[in-house]
Amino acid sequence: MTPPRRKRRRPQPPPPPLPTPPAPEPPDGQAEPKNPERLYAFAEAEDGARAELDLVTLIVARSAPQPGASPEHTAVLRLCVAPLSVAELSAYLNLPFSAMTVLITELITAELVQARAPIVRQALPDRSLLEAVMHGLQRL
């Protein structure tokens, strides 16, 4: 008995690419915007002014979130029950720093949050004082 012969498959040519339909023309000959609008472009602030915030500025909530607040405002108010820096808020909410400054500026204007200066560390103590404490502890 002889084994059955297998047929070799011949490579098929790839199908021709489908023609792309032309993009519709915008009305009145206006150019279509290339980039979508960013989150901070939809801010409610009319003058575009921002609070002077740094990455280490601490934000503290003054009140609970209001029922009609946006999801971003609600999230900031819930996170800021304890003081958080702007950098931490930006990381937790996965928003860029520029968007966070706009959101926080709106909350400061509405008096829902308070911005505090970061806690400054005191200067390092004198080296001779540290050596005196170390020698005193070694004698014990």
Automatic annotation (TrEMBL):
Residues 1-11 have a biased composition (Basic residues). It comes from the Bacteria. Residues 12-27 have a biased composition (Pro residues). Residues 1-36 are annotated as: Disordered. This is DUF742 domain-containing protein. The lineage of its organism: Bacteria, Bacillati, Actinomycetota, Actinomycetes, Kitasatosporales.
